[in-house]
Write a structure and sequence with these properties.
The structure is a homodimer.
Chain A lengths: L6 E6 L2 H10 L12 E6 L2 E7 H8 L10 E7 L2 H13 L3 E8 L5 E6 L5 E6 L16
Parallel strand pairs in A: 1-3, 4-7
Antiparallel strand pairs in A: 2-3, 5-6, 6-7
Amino acid sequence: MEQRISMVTLGVTDLARSRSFYEQIGWRPSGDSTEDVAFFQVGGLVLGLWGREDLAADSGVADSGGWGGVTLAHNVRTTGEVDVVLAAAGRAGGEVVREPAETFWGGYSGVFVDPDGHPWEVAYNPGWELTEDGSVRLPE
Amino acid sequence: MEQRISMVTLGVTDLARSRSFYEQIGWRPSGDSTEDVAFFQVGGLVLGLWGREDLAADSGVADSGGWGGVTLAHNVRTTGEVDVVLAAAGRAGGEVVREPAETFWGGYSGVFVDPDGHPWEVAYNPGWELTEDGSVRLPE
C-alpha cells in the first residue's frame, strides 16, 4: 500500500450548511461536486463532505453519533495566522473549543470544530517547515 | 484559511500495535516519531497516530468511543490493486468490513478498518486520475 491518503470524507448532517462554512473560510469546491457531495482540492488529496448516514453505511461501520478519534490539522507560518484563522472559523459558524496558546510541543495552536463537530487544530509548528505550496515535509 | 490539510491524526489505544499495522502494510514512520506518537509522510501532509484520550483532550472534544463521521480513502490505479491492498490490510491485522465490488459511482472499492476501527476505503475511481506521485487532481 503506497504511503498516501487520497481523500478525507467528513460526514455531515446538512450539506448546504457545511459547504457554506468551508466556502466562508475561503475554500472553493470543485466542479465535480453535486447536490449530495462536495469535494475540495486540498493539496494532493480531496476533502469530501457527504451525509453522515450514507458515509457510515458506505464505510461498513456503526455511527457513534459523536467524535470518533480523528482530528485534522491546518498548519500556518506564524502565530498571528493561527489567531486570524481561528477568528475566521468562528465568524463562519465554527466553534473555537481551544483558544490559541503556546503548546506543550513548542508551538502555538488552537482548535475549532466545524458545524458537524469535526475538530481542526490550527497550528504554528516551528519544527515543521511549510513549503511554498503549503506542504509539510518531515525528516526521513 | 488556505485550502489544505496539514495533518490527519488518528486516535489509538495501543500505539505499538497501530504503528506495527501501518508498517506491515508497507509504510515507514518518520524519524520525528517518538514513544508517544508516530508520524508518516503521506504526500504533502502527515498522518499521525496518538493516544485517543490525549487526542480527545487536546482537540477539546468528548470521545464517543466509536466511529465519529470520518472515513479516509486510498485510491489506486486498477481494480486489481484494490483487491491486493485489502488483502494486505487483512493480513496485517485490519478487518475488511466491505468486500471489494463495483460501486454506485462507477468505480470499484472495498473498506478495511485499522486496529482502532478507523475505516479506509481502497478505491479505483476511473473518473479521478492519479498523477505519477499518487496525487488526485479534481476538475476546477
